[in-house]
Specification:
- It contains nine helices and 21 strands.
- It is an alpha+beta fold.
- It has two domains: about 260 residues, Rossmann fold, CATH 3.40.50.300; about 100 residues, Nucleic acid-binding proteins (OB fold (Dihydrolipoamide Acetyltransferase, E2P)).
- The strands form four sheets. A six-stranded mixed sheet has the order 7-8-9-3-10-11, with helices on both faces. Strands 2-1-4-5-6 form a five-stranded antiparallel sheet, covered by helices on one side.
- A hairpin with a 2-residue loop joins strand 1 and strand 2.
């Protein structure tokens, strides 16, 4: 067996093109007679009217969500908004105080009936920030932990390790693996008991930026092959958009908004949701003749009434800079890889405007440029 070492984990993390295409796991039985979602897919997990409090402090308020089989749903929101509590309730690690939880069409917790099955009776797979691999066990032993060893489970383990490019490290111990390899080992251990639902809590937070990008894309593709309902907790918007078929944005224990990644990013219905995806240019003005005036020019008020005080939010990539025109002065620029961040001050006022421009565009301070706003990256909300 090759030596792995954390510093030598690059070989184990690189892409292998001849890996098996057969998914290593499908749910043993599919939910064909239970509830279905709006698209007709069986629902793997459903939470209805879930509320929760710690010491009188409400942390969840009437949450209702459903995740279909084969669907990945990401709970996105800042720390303390209730994401992890919701995951722990679904797993049975917290006693349900209010509401109902169904897995595979079967009720596993119902506060009104005082029904609350323990985690081992819910057929859920759990994976948390700390992978919690057993240091005295090999990779294969960690994956098989908690399941009865049979010829079938051994075959599944071999196929799964090969699919996740861990077969050469099956007899290695966790401390010899890279962070990406440890993450994949923990994922397989969660999948080995053939759960109906997989619950992931910040599963990539311990990885460096470059490895995180690779591993989460691989994980998303792998989970799609399993057909399992997957609920992921994250505070990273990019991660949520890469992994999720749907995003549920949480704030103060409530679902503020839900939709596809494109819906949430391109058509946010709340300024808080718009601001989750990075810094915004922000101005406040009043609606006049259906428009709101900004230092970049007036923008459509989006149906707000005449005289309404409005807040205008424009994403940095929605600011267009024209070197052949005038209207603003560059005050700074930085290269961010495939994008350049440029700060300008408009002639119409002392407003510092941030633009994100594709490619290498690094104008010197004092350079004169024209500025305009992309309507598809411009959002207008009532000011509160």
């Amino acid at each position: 067996m090759p030596e792995a070492g954390r510093g030598g984990g690059e070989r184990g993390d690189r892409l292998v093109r001849d890996q098996p295409t057969v998914p290593p796991h499908r749910p043993a039985t599919r939910n064909t007679d239970g509830p279905v979602d709006a698209g007709g897919r069986p629902v793997g997990v459903r939470l209805t009217g879930v509320s929760h409090a710690y010491g009188g402090q409400r942390v969840l308020r009437d949450i209702s969500i459903a995740v279909a089989e084969g669907e990945i749903v990401c709970l996105l929101g800042p720390s303390g908004c209730g994401k992890t509590t919701l995951l722990r309730l679904a797993a049975g690690l917290e006693r349900l105080q209010c509401g109902r939880i169904e897995i595979g069409g079967e009720t596993v917790a119902d506060a009104a009936r005082r029904l609350d099955r323990p985690p081992e009776a819910r057929r859920v797979g759990l994976m948390f920030q700390d992978y919690a691999l057993f240091p005295h066990m090999t990779v294969a032993e960690n994956v098989r932990f908690g399941i009865r060893r049979t010829a079938e489970s051994d075959a599944w383990t071999r196929d799964a390790l090969q699919r996740m490019r861990l077969n050469e490290w099956s007899e290695a111990h966790p401390h010899t693996l890279s962070g990406g390899q440890q993450q994949r080992c923990a994922l397989l251990r969660a999948l080995a008991p053939h759960p109906r639902v997989l619950l992931l809590d910040e599963p990539f937070s311990g990885l460096d930026v470059a490895l995180r990008s690779q591993v989460r894309e691989e994980t998303a593709a792998f989970l799609k092959d399993t057909g399992i309902s997957t609920l992921v907790v994250t505070h990273d918007p990019e991660e949520a958009m890469i992994l999720g078929d749907r995003l549920l944005v949480m704030r103060d224990g409530e679902i503020l908004e839900e939709g596809t990644p494109a819906d949430i990013y391109l058509r946010p219905r709340d300024p808080f949701v718009a601001g989750l995806f990075g810094p915004l240019n922000r101005w406040v003005g009043r609606v006049a003749r259906g428009r709101v005036d900004t230092p970049i020019g007036d923008v459509d008020a989006g149906g707000l009434g005449e005289g309404t005080e409005a807040v205008v939010l424009i994403r940095p990539e929605g600011i267009t800079l024209d070197p052949q025109s005038r209207g603003a002065t560059v005050v700074g620029s930085r290269l961010l890889g495939c994008f350049s961040a440029v700060s300008v001050v408009s002639d119409s006022g002392d407003w510092r405007i941030r633009a994100l421009v594709g490619g290498v565009f690094l104008p010197e301070p004092g350079t004169r440029v024209g500025i305009a706003a992309d309507p598809t990256r411009t959002f207008v909300f009532p000011a509160f």
